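Working notes for the structural subgroup meeting. M.R. asked for a predicted model of this chain before we commit to crystallization trials. I am recording the input and output together here so anyone reviewing the notebook later can reproduce the run.

Input as submitted:
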Amino acid sequence: MADKSVRALAAELKNFLSAHEEEDFVSAAAQPAAAGFSRVTGQEDNTPAQPQMGPASPVLYQQVSPSRPAQHAAAVSKQPPQDTLTVVFGQAAQQHPQPVTVEKPQPVVSAPVCPPDQPPVGGTMTTEEKTAALAELAATIKNCSRCPLGDTRLNAVPGEGNVNARLMFVGEGPGYDEDRQGRPFVGRAGQLLDKMIAAMGLKREEVFIANIAKCHPMVDPQHPEKHGNDRAPNAQEIACCRKYLEKQISIILPEVVVALGGVSAKALIADAKSLGALRGKFYTLSLDNVSLPRPVKILATFHPAALLRNPGWKKDAWADLQMVMAHMGLKAPSK
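Returned structure, recorded in token form:
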């Protein structure tokens, strides 16, 4: 009887967490953001925070390609069906930096990230030059057929956001909804990512969002209309798309890149073994095809799709985002 009662309680708890899978991340975000973390180890230090990024005049970059018929089939193992990108993630790290108690954050109003007529701090391109360069790159991605994904996609998904963004999120590849709209993170995982960004005190229009792969990797490319047809990009597909992402990073030149999930983390962080081994500290981004005029930090955390499947990981993801906030001098919005 006791065992049955325990199992019944466990089932009720699981159902409760599933029903509140999105709301509880926002609840966690209501706590004061951690401050004073070391930029490398995650330990407390006394380094002054940089000024907060205030509302920006967003310059959106996105490109939608015309529909294409499915022409190529790939033999890959089938992933669990769902309406967002599916990938198996590493176990969460057991040790996490402890938040530091800080005073209740006050709203901060500052100038836009980068005035249109001035070059961005630490960069060499003006806003107009960045916009033009990204548009040209998007046109190239739209017509790319370097790997079979170019023949089976409905729309290419270059990415979108503020060309002067201080913060950039990189996922693994477009899913069902993204393939139809030509925009990154617009399905259920994208809705949760929007809430994660808001919990950091930012808006989606203030950051830049992209993926390692620019076209939809499908389990069954002959039937792109099917739901639950998503998979992670393979090594060949990542290698073909990598130069596009690296070019985007070099143009935008953010302060921090957040790798969402094990696929993007292991593709962008040298000698990466697993997501669990990578979380909890910053790395200096090293690119294969371009040189950066100044260092860019990268931090790995869970993909929003993984958080939807495993709500218990949201606390760990919030700890990761708090490290980014402390590094950039950001504060959670006041309630």
